[in-house]
Amino acid sequence: MGFSSPRPSSTASHDDDDDGRRQDAMWERRTHARILVSDADAGCIIGKAGYDIHAMEARSGAHIKLSGRGRPLPGTDRRVVLVSGLFRTVMDAAELVLEKLFYLGDQVIDAEATVVLVVPDACCGALIGKGGEVIKSLAEESNAGITVSPYDICYGFHDRLVTITGHLDNQLQAIFLILSELLDDVRYSSSVASLSFPSSSVRYGGDGQDEHVERYHSRPDTPVRSPDYDSHVQGTLTMGVADEYVGAVIGYGGRTIQEIERVTGVQIKIVKGEFIPGTNEREVVISGTREAVDAAEAMIMQRVSDAAKGRRRQQGGGGGDRRPVKEVE
C-alpha cells in the first residue's frame, strides 16, 4: 500500500528509487499531524497493554500519543491522535494508524471511511487559498474530497477540522499534500506546543503501569503554551522552558532575547527563581499582537531545539531520548 507522491517509507522496500528520494531534505524536517478518532478506534490503536502503539512507533520512528479517555477535542466527541517526528516518519505512522482503523488483516473494514485532521485556524486561510484554489488543487491531485470546517466555528485551541473522504490511498495522498503545504508555516509548527496532555499514571489492564506517560511539553524542545492565550489582537502567552535551556533563550548578555524582541516587537519576561509547579521549567511570558507572539514563540522554540540537539551531540546520544508516548488520562 502507498500513495502516488514519491515519499520514503521506513516500512517500504529499499530499492534504488527510494534510496534517492531519501536525500530530499523535506523528509527530514519536523512536523506533526492530529487525527480525530472515536474511543473504540483509540482502543484499536493502543492495543492490548499498549502493544500496537509501541509497534507502530517502532516501525515508523514517529511519536504517537492519544488524548485521554473521556477527554475529546472540545466541540467534538472524538479523541486526538498526535503523530510527531520527521516528515517521513509522520507519514509512515499516519499510514499505519489508518491501516489499523480501516483494515482487519487483508480485509477492508471501510474503504471510504472519513479521516479528520485538526489544523490551527490561523493556518487554514493559506491552506484554502484565494477563492479556494489551493484546496481545490489538493483535492484534484489526491483524488480525495477535502473540506474545511467554517471559519466561525472553532474547536479545541482555535482549531478547525479538515475532513478527507475517499479510498485509503487517496486519503494518505491528501494528508501528504496538506502537511506539505503547512511545512513552511511557522504558525503550524509552533501550534504543537499549545497541546496539553496532563501528566498521570495510566493502566492498560492488570497491574502494569505504563512507564512512558508524560506531559507532551516535558521534552526540552517543546515548550508549553498556557491555556489562557488571548485570541484577540493583543495577547499574552506563557511558555514553559526547561531551566537548562533558558540560557540559550536569553543569550550572552541577553542578546538573543533582545534580538527576538526587536525582530518581533514583543515583550518577553522570564520569571526568575521559580519553576512551574511540578516541573523543572521556567515561565516565559510573551506579550504583543497575536502574530508577533506566534513568531516570537517559534523563535524561542527553535533556540531551545538547537540547544537540545547540541547537548545530545556532546553527549554522543545521536537521536536523543527515544521514549514512546502513550495514552494520557
Provide the fold topology.
Elements: H1 16-21, E1 30-37, H2 39-46, H3 51-60, E2 63-66, E3 79-86, H4 87-102, E4 103-104, E5 107-108, E6 115-120, H5 121-128, H6 133-142, E7 145-148, E8 159-165, H7 168-182, H8 186-191, E9 224-225, E10 234-242, H9 243-250, H10 255-264, E11 267-270, E12 281-289, H11 290-314
Task: Report on the architecture of this protein.
This protein is α+β, with helices and mostly antiparallel strands and 329 residues long. Helices cover 37% and strands 20% of the residues. The protein is built from 11 helices and 12 strands. It has a 4-stranded antiparallel sheet. The protein has a 3-stranded antiparallel sheet with strand order 1-3-2. A hairpin with a 2-residue loop joins β4 (103-104) and β5. α3 packs antiparallel against α4 and α4 (87-102) runs antiparallel to α7 (168-182). It starts with 15 loop residues before the first helix and ends in a 15-residue tail after the last helix. Residues 1-23, 197-232 and 318-329 have low confidence and may be disordered.
List keywords for this structure.
three-stranded antiparallel β-sheet, 20% strand, 37% helix, 12 strands, 329 residues, alpha+beta, disordered C terminus, globular, 11 helices
Unreliable runs, pLDDT <50, ≥5 residues? 1-23, 197-232, 318-329
| Average of pLDDT | 75
Strand content: 15-25%
What fraction, in percent, of the residue positions are helical?
Answer: 25-40%
What is the SS-derived class?
A: alpha+beta
Count of discrete alpha- or pi-helical segments spanning 4 or more residues: 11
Distance between the terminal alpha carbons, to the nearest Å? 33 Å
The rounded Rg comes to 20 Å
